[in-house]
Specification:
heterotetramer; A: 326 residues; alpha/beta; Rossmann fold; two-stranded antiparallel sheet; 11 helices; 7 strands; B: 331 residues; 2 domains; 7-stranded mixed beta sheet; 5-stranded mixed beta sheet; 38% helix; 19% strand; binds thiamine diphosphate; binds magnesium ion
Chain lengths: 326, 331, 331, 326
């Protein structure tokens, strides 16, 4: 576990709590799907919590992120509340997007989340544009663009990296490299080196362990600081793993991913377990305190689910609202 | 006759054509081992190998571009575009390249490729995974556009598409993959540009595309129980469009509704309605009415999504109005 | 009133808005020193500097994506897309992202951006530099679409577009950049969704978009000399569309021709004709006739290109037929 | 001047002649524009002849190329005749595309030219697809994708390079790096290193002098051979220069390109002059023989122009032919 730049107990515990909150959110989302209470499908980010939390904890609410189809973790980490998130997941009026977006467009916009995106790579331009406007308006804000390893196959990335590099934009491209693109190992569909691709545009790039929340947070803090000084853009290739299938319905997946591999990651590289152990080892928290965090988060999540299940759908009159800004 | 799912029908069509013609191959995301997320192509890689069933990176413009080049040089690619919404990503390769190559080369080059993709809302997939974008493609000369309305059409049209020497885009309704229909064991092809009169009637013509054919048929059932006789027609391909059959029907019934799951404005219903109005004008007892999807991005919430698309009840209600002369004062 | 070119009108509109609002900026290929290949933006970089007039790499999807993100976060980008044909490259960013962001976010985010591009054939630029693709964009809810028909509209619509809080696409006719029209010195805006009755008439309504307004006017001149009184209407924006004005006119004249330079099939003429037929049906003495560009890729050869687009003579001939009742037997 | 792999007199003289033919074609095209006899605009490739000829002389008619908006040179180099080319340029029925394509779509398709393309980067997929089909059909054919330095900003390139590298396709990406994208120096709109971008995909890449026809031909021959053996793809970054403006109408261009720079290239790095000198120095041809080549090519070009000017336009009935293959 690397040393973190966030150095006080409060920061550590918040990072731990946020990771637990993501895990709890996803577990409940999965349950909603399995019990046929959720409309459609959803992509869970369990296993990838350290990336979302390590990065978002280095940002202010004024900093922007763009998220992906696997976006619940980013949304939680950027400061969203469970109730409005579960309402969104269930298509309820009190959802962050009034039920119009659902899982694939979920975002607490007020906290600088510019949205999850159902087009793989689709938000790369948006994040870069947010950085451009931050630079133009001299707001000092930074934009972080989350995307998966599979998304590096989208030409858009190369186009926007070129502009970001040319214009020194305050954007950090954060590749959540979980090794898979749907049902395919990404190394079967990615030639050469992803990191070298960013470097070829003159972008300073880092390969790092995405399961180590402190390492992620530490590097992000440094890069955010440098972005604010006009030294951006940057690229981070974060090695991580998704515990579930590509989406909730992807249950029998041994044809593309071995059970052994999954359990190896879960048992030895779990970001929450490992960070919990570190917190205990460093005497920052006791086992009981961590259990208490877990329990209270679980309780909060269950209450939010119960609330969302009862919440009302948007009125049908909303169907043609928000097509245009009035 | 045996009944098979639309999914199986597509699979059979492709397998048969790949057996018949070694230059036919498949490419797209997760088409091989996974057989696509909808499992439509399951089993093909086992029979034809990874040389002819090619998993691509998530590079839609790229692999459509590859297909165009491969089609120009002796092969017949079938490209799988996982969601119809991604067609926006490939419009340049499809519309600036594939569609125009034959013409721009004065007839010297051709692009015999198939782009199979899907359409259809109410799957709770929100605005970027629910669109029915066939009208965009139909607007571009050089492309043909097929819209199967059942397993039977899905097989027959796919086989025709694969043998066609032009770029063809097929939109399958993703909600119909598990729907079964009678499909002969024997080989058959469905020619492009030949509409199918699904049901004869005398009072009103209901023209539906893709799953809207089912909606039209269900509406016709409702209407029949009320003594209104509706003719239901499935154009099957919107480019080429079998204008003749549609006009003949409307001349007979004097009334028509055009039903399509694309957004209503600047879409398919406008084109068909305009042609009918123009060419059967003096036979019409009422304006041709259009029923497309609402002009809104597809909302996620079930409460909203369900009301964005035409329903049998809605169509029946409109037909009733038309037949009772209620529209006279409206227009 | 002074007369200025359409090119100058666009330039003035953008300059005025950039002066008024520091969040407005321009980006695109060769927009700065070169002022675009058509020189429309000449002089702006000198006044506003390279921070607000930004030359981009040849990355259309990329810079449109940047504009979407910039628009979501406090600025008002105007994106210059050099040729309308390149819109195929940016459809995903425009239609999956810009158009849907406000809706998908439940009204929380908005994308106040302008995409200015062009249209129009007969410039001998062949199939990939001559298309008029506005119908594609008009089909997608969430986008507004303006089509200026002269310098006057070009200025007034551009200013409105820049102040609009939605993504707006403006199609300028590239053959009209040097055409002059009276443009007031004083500031004015032209509201969206308000058609302009360019010329009143009683026998037939000619509805034209962009340069087809000039074609309609020229046709009206020909017709006037033969004693046929044509009303000419310019919708100015096709989304939103001022249906009311169009319908009112057609109810008066009982006949209409819709003229547009996009391909005829599955395009703008179908939509407008269908609406008129539906909503003025019982007032029509003849079918609404559509005159779009031919459904062929635009050919390079002048001998071919010139016949692909509607002409005043063609429109006048069709109007004559409609007014003489000749269409009765055709339909 | 590098040693060439094409080693006999005939080969050398053909390369020289083909370069002269391109120059002559362009000069006549320019004249047609200036005298208002040509419909529309056109982009001339004068100055870039060694790239087109060095590469195409290493190919067989079965090998494919894709070309660009600046495509006359590729067309000539791949074996096209002047008459059908000028007819195309003037929109005449006897043109290679029956007048339907014009300058931006010109191609002698029977010689493996899959077409010029008016979409910058638009043919990158086509070339790669031609290589895919060559590999699938085991034809042994190679595809060369010509494009400009400005085109490297198109995301499509990265998408197709990835697939070409993954699947070992016999395609050579040939960047005609003339330093400008329209009215902008490409280094103002290209970050990092173009060559490194290709290398990042694991593609073997070369920077070379595009004015040296022998060097170009030599390398291309080797790469073509290796492509045929399944060792592709490759990337070549060929430094070259366009003598004219971006298109025939781009006359006053000092605001983006200095006259000095232009004359420096023309006087010291002209591919035809320099190769001519080498041929003389090596005693492969005398000055008179070279003059004779120039004269006869000029004559051929003028005759073709005269022919094309008199040739007839396609009949109007052709307008809706070739929209679909019957
Ligand atoms: C443009 C586009 N192509 C394909 C898809 C279908 N799809 C959804 S997620 C996914 C895999 C993405 O892989 P990666 O970027 O690694 O993200 P991960 O799912 O691993 O988090 C694909 C192919 C899509 N949504 N958008
Ligand atoms: C997609 C696209 N964007 C923009 C243009 C306009 N355009 C034509 S040529 C050109 C510059 C191309 O530069 P480069 O690739 O270096 O080729 P060069 O002209 O130098 O040969 C541009 C921007 C186009 N034709 N296509
Ligand atoms: Mg992944
Ligand atoms: Mg260049």
């Amino acid at each position: 576990m690397a040393k973190a730049a966030k150095t006080n107990t409060e920061d550590y515990l918040r990072m731990y709590t946020q990771m637990v909150r993501i895990r709890a959110f996803e577990d409940n989302a999965n349950q909603l799907y399995l019990s046929a209470k959720m409309p459609g499908l959803t992509h869970m980010s369990s296993g990838q919590e350290a990336v979302a939390v390590g990065i978002c904890e280095a940002l202010t609410p004024e900093d922007k992120i763009t998220s992906t189809h696997r976006g619940h973790g980013h949304c939680v980490a950027k400061g969203a509340e469970f109730k409005a998130m579960f309402c969104e997941l269930l298509g309820k009026e009190e959802g962050y997007c009034r039920g119009k977006g659902g899982s694939m467009h979920i975002a607490d916009q007020s906290n600088g989340n510019l949205g999850a995106n159902a087009i793989v790579g689709g938000s790369m331009g948006i994040a870069t544009g947010a950085a451009l406007s931050a630079k133009m308006q001299k707001t000092g804000a930074v934009a972080v663009c989350f995307f998966g390893d599979g998304a590096t196959a989208q030409g858009l990335w190369y186009e926007v990296m070129n502009m970001a590099a040319l214009w020194g934009l305050p954007v950090i491209y954060a590749c959540e490299n979980n090794g898979y693109s749907e049902y395919t190992r990404t190394d079967e569909i990615a030639a050469g080196s992803i990191t070298a691709r960013a470097e070829a545009f003159g972008i300073e790039s880092y390969d790092l362990d995405g399961q180590d929340v402190l390492a992620v947070n530490d590097l992000t803090q440094k890069l955010v600081e440098r972005c604010r000084k006009g030294e951006g853009p940057f690229f981070m290739n974060l090695k991580t793993y998704r515990y579930h299938g590509h989406h909730v319905g992807d249950i029998n997946r041994e044809y593309y991913r071995a059970k052994d591999e999954e359990s190896e990651w879960k048992t030895t590289r779990d970001p929450i377990t490992n960070f919990g152990k570190w917190l205990e080892g460093e005497k920052i928290a006791t086992t009981d305190e961590l259990i208490e965090i877990n329990n209270s988060v679980r309780k909060e999540a269950e209450e939010a689910v119960a609330y969302a299940l009862e919440a009302k759908y948007p009125d049908v009159s909303e169907v043609d609202m928000h097509v245009y800004v009035a | 006759m045996r009944e098979i799912t639309l999914s199986k029908a597509v699979n059979e069509a492709i397998a048969e054509e790949m057996r018949r013609d070694p230059t036919v191959f498949l490419m797209g995301e997760d088409v091989a081992e996974a057989g696509t997320p909808f499992k439509v192509l399951a089993g093909l890689v086992e029979e034809f190998g990874t040389e002819r069933v090619i998993d691509t990176p998530i590079s839609e413009p790229g692999f459509v571009g590859l297909a165009v080049g491969a089609a120009m040089t002796g092969t017949r690619p079938i490209v799988d575009l996982m969601f119809g919404d991604f067609i926006f990503l490939v419009m340049d390769q499809l519309c600036n390249q594939a569609a125009k190559t034959h013409y721009m080369s004065g007839g010297k080059l051709s692009v015999p490729m198939v782009l199979r993709t899907n359409m259809g809302a109410t799957r709770r997939s929100a605005a970027q995974h629910s669109q029915s974008l066939h009208a965009l493609v139909a607007h571009i000369p050089g492309l043909k556009v097929a819209m199967p309305s059942s397993a039977y059409e899905a097989k027959g049209l796919m086989k025709t598409a694969i043998r066609d020497n032009n770029p063809v885009v097929i939109f399958e309704d993703k909600l119909m993959y598990q729907d079964k229909a009678p499909v002969p064991e024997e080989e058959y092809l469905i020619p492009f540009g030949v509409a199918n009169v699904k049901r004869e009637g005398t009072d009103i013509t209901l023209i539906g595309t893709s799953s809207m054919v089912q909606v039209a048929e269900a509406a016709a059932d409702i209407l029949a129980s009320e003594g209104i006789s509706a003719e239901v027609i499935d154009p099957r391909t919107i480019v080429p469009l079998d204008e003749e059959t549609l006009i003949k029907s409307v001349k007979k019934t004097s009334r028509a509704i055009v039903i399509d799951e694309g957004h209503q404005s600047y879409g398919v219903t406008g084109e068909i309605a305009a042609r009918l109005n123009e060419k059967a004008f003096y036979h019409l007892d009422a304006p041709v009415v259009r029923m497309g999807a609402m002009d809104v991005p597809v909302p996620f919430s079930p409460a909203l999504e369900d009301i964005t698309v035409p329903t049998p009840e809605g169509v029946a209600a409109m037909a009733r109005k038309l037949c009772s002369g209620e529209m006279i004062h409206a227009a």
